[in-house]
Write the structure tokens for this entry.
Amino acid sequence: MTKEKIEELISQLTLQEIIDMIHGNGCFCTKGVERLGIPPFVTSDGPRGVRKDFENDAFKELGLSYDYVSYLPCNTALAATWNRELAYATGKLLGKEARGRGKDMILAPGINIMRTPLCGRSFEYMGEDPYLVSEMVVPVVQGIEENDVSSCVKHFAVNNQETRRLDVDVEVSERALRELYLPGFEAAVKKGKAKGVMGAYNKLRGMHCCHNDYLLIDILRKEWGFEGITVSDWGGVHDTEEALMNGIDMEMSVTNNYDSYYMANPLLELIESGAVEQKTAYAKIDEKVRHILHVMNELHMLDGKRKSGTYNDYQDKAVLRQTARESVVLLKNNNHILPLDKKKIKKLLVVGENANRQHAPGGGSAEIKALYEITPLMGLHMLLGGNTQIEYQPGYFNDDIGNIWANTGESENGQADSLNQDGEKAQSLPSTESKDQSEEKLKHQKEMNEKYLKEALEAAKDADAVIYVGGLTHDYDTEGQDRNDMKLPYEQDRLISELLKVRPDTVVTLVAGSPVDMAAWIDSADTLVYSWYAGMEGGIALAEVLFGDVNPSGHLPESFPVTESDCPAVVLGEFPGGDQVTYGEDIFVGYRYYDTYDVPTAFPFGYGLSYTDFVMTGIRAEVLEDTADHKSVKVSFDISNIGDMAGAAVAQVYVADKYPKVKKADKELKAFEKLYLEPGETREVALILEKDAFSYFDEESHSFQADAGSYMIMLAKNADEVVDVTEVEFTS
Ligand code: BGC
């Protein structure tokens, strides 16, 4: 349909019809206009797959037998692969399933920057670095949208904590906003051509992000040329006039009083009352519906030529398995304990409740009704088969104490309750130790932990190998709440320490969506494997890594601080703050802080080991272009696999300004490449760095600047391990 045809359609719409198209008329959809052949617009969560179906008027599960779907690795897992092709394949699968389930827009991906390790929704996002996020989000968006389904990149912007998420007011410098918090969104819009963006719940500089003209009009539309739909987060609109004027196209919420939504009758009344200048008001609502029709047109919703999608295609499981495999991060492997040898292990002990736990149904709106989920315990059974005897001991007692979301499961309108508009619940942080447990429950928990600990230690004595699988659950990695601290729950520190005393060769594996404090036992552990909520194939992928069928190649997409009090948001800024949170750490988030301020981490950004060894050397840089507007540098180096196992390395290129005019981080990631190498293989790699690689946001000129001068270009294995350096000089 041409632009003229869309305009013609708009001219035929009544004011009421437009209003109906721009606000929710169900938990996840808006109304269409049947007489003009405009269908309703149907959305669905979310980043880890297509969410189950709910009643139209309440977040009450329908209980269908046919809305089981593929459960995808969470975004942190995807980011840990550092593999753009897998990001594309994963996005493609998500879009195909969304379309297969009849959706028009999938409320994904989530890309908020991990400002603190305690953010409850970290697992839905892609880590702490804007370059890594940008590189991964573009292929995800492209993959999704190839299926005639819109993505909805969320949450725009600075939605970096769950505490008081509905109205916390973020104060952040323009530079930090531009350098850290916006680039992922900009890449998704400009390069990925995302058709949807979701406004965040929180405020930015005093104004709610869902009707924040600076974000939604000045930046998104005017600067980035976004032509798609801006959707509010569910319940994120708070003012009718601002919603009309400030760039939000579609108001969604969690209650079923649709006519009372800010962009429903109140908007109609506002326009009809003449309180807003008529011409402006009509132009504004036409603009909103124009964006919606534009996207509908692009998705072939208006011309009968739309792809149909499918879901649960068995061939797609290979993509999910591969993403899960490549997301596993090997953090420690002293004495080459890993990989374990299948032939030598006749009796295997698996300790830890996460070995036996399915995570798909938790986490908040990212919950998934998975067709299946292979737990680590099942994966080990599947891989080892009949010749190995596997004993499982829970080791600790997880009594499913639940969280805001879990506790609303039985409710008539769960998601609405989870928001708890009075803000009280949303403000109370869960404690890793007790939450709301009664003393009796606590006593029971202690007794059970004691019992399980004893049983696990006893069993460990005569096993050929011991694998520990602990970590977090969605009681902690969850929407609606941040963690109080980084401690492992359920007395796991004690269990791991005791286990390591009995069996120093215990393979320690953690399943979690964010970093945990490991100080209590990390020095005594020879091994540490980090697996995220890695999707339906996660358990088998982990088993394959532990037994060497797969060589691990995941790298951390975020720094793992020793403890939460080391985190820059706490040291230099505010977290969780009060009604207002000042991002005093400015651009010094994640490794930009740990590096520059010499603060040791447990594991640095970009870290990840392999069963083979890689040598990266010979970095050289050639300036191809050096004008005020364009800069381009060709960076080349060699990489060899000097071990005896095929594997993948992630070569990371960081840039540092030698004599910066403004304070800058010691180095910033500006390029990376994941490379698969056979044993003994060497490859020459060439990457191009453009002007952005040398730019910072200059608040005075309100623009990105790449100053003339010398820059160091560093080849690194991770943010803490630079292996080779060269320099370039720009004269203009
Ligand atoms: C979440 C969004 C989600 C929406 C719809 C909100 O609570 O913040 O990420 O897409 O609900 O379920």
In short: The pocket of beta-D-glucopyranose is lined by residues 45-46, 107, 154, 233-234, 365 (CB under 6 Å).
